[in-house]
Design a protein that fits this description.
This is 5-formyltetrahydrofolate cyclo-ligase. The chain has helices spanning about 5-25, 25-45, 65-75, 145-150, and strands spanning about 50-55, 80-85, 95, 105, 110-115, 120, 125, 130, 135-140, 155-160, 165-170, 180-185, 190. By secondary structure, it is of the alpha/beta class. The chain has an eight-stranded mixed β-sheet, with helices on both faces. The protein has a three-stranded mixed β-sheet with strand order 9-8-11, covered by helices on one side. The two termini are about 20 Å apart.
Length: about 190
């Protein structure tokens, strides 16, 4: 059950988890991210989506760019997309991305495709600061992915990507929180089957 100070609890937890991740040096993160890449690639091979939405690496998160470049190069029919953050409180949209795409930078300093129509990827790789065994994730608190997953039609397969350091016993989700279909870490891949 959520308590009245749940926002403060989640904010403190988010700050702690992001701080710990950002405090890890490159030598510590490199093998974790290499293992994550192997597991994410295996899940993509298993699920065989025709398109993948992913995020530009931010604040020590998993960098999916090398994997997406390889994934696109193996099949010309595939496509990838990056999110575009719009007005506050609105769902994100996605635009197609390729290694030669012209990029712009959003208000958070994150690159996104400068032009293009909105698309709906079949699968989304979603960064998690924290997560629990039921597939709930802790993001940055703005609700971008919860709103986006609720709005996209058809709903993409949601794959949370995190390091084990963010595993929690119970995130105590809020009513609007949506569980991921899959969670991938450097040590585990599991499904929550919404």
């Amino acid at each position: 059950m959520n308590v009245p100070d749940d926002r403060a609890r989640r904010k403190a937890l988010r700050l702690e988890l992001v701080g710990r991740r950002q405090a890890m040096d490159a030598a510590t993160l490199a093998p974790l991210h290499a293992a994550l890449e192997t597991r994410v690639e295996a899940l993509l091979t298993q699920l065989r989506p025709a398109s993948v939405g992913f995020t530009w690496p931010y604040r020590g998160e998993f960098d999916a760019l090398p994997l997406m470049r390889r994934w696109l190069a193996t099949d010309p029919a595939r496509w990838a997309a990056l999110p575009v953050v719009g007005e506050k409180g609105q769902p994100m949209t996605f635009r197609r991305w390729a290694p030669d795409t012209v990029m712009a930078t959003d208000r958070y300093g994150i690159p996104y495709p400068a032009d293009g129509e909105a698309v709906v990827p079949a699968l989304l790789l979603i960064p998690c600061n924290g997560f629990d065994g039921r597939g709930y994730r802790l993001g940055y608190g703005a609700g971008h992915y919860d709103r986006t997953l609720a709005a996209l039609v058809p709903t993409p397969v949601a794959v949370g990507v995190a390091i084990e350091d963010g595993r929690l016993d119970d995130l105590q989700p809020q009513p609007h929180d949506l569980p991921m279909d899959w969670i991938v870490t450097e040590a585990d891949t599991f499904t929550s089957h919404r």
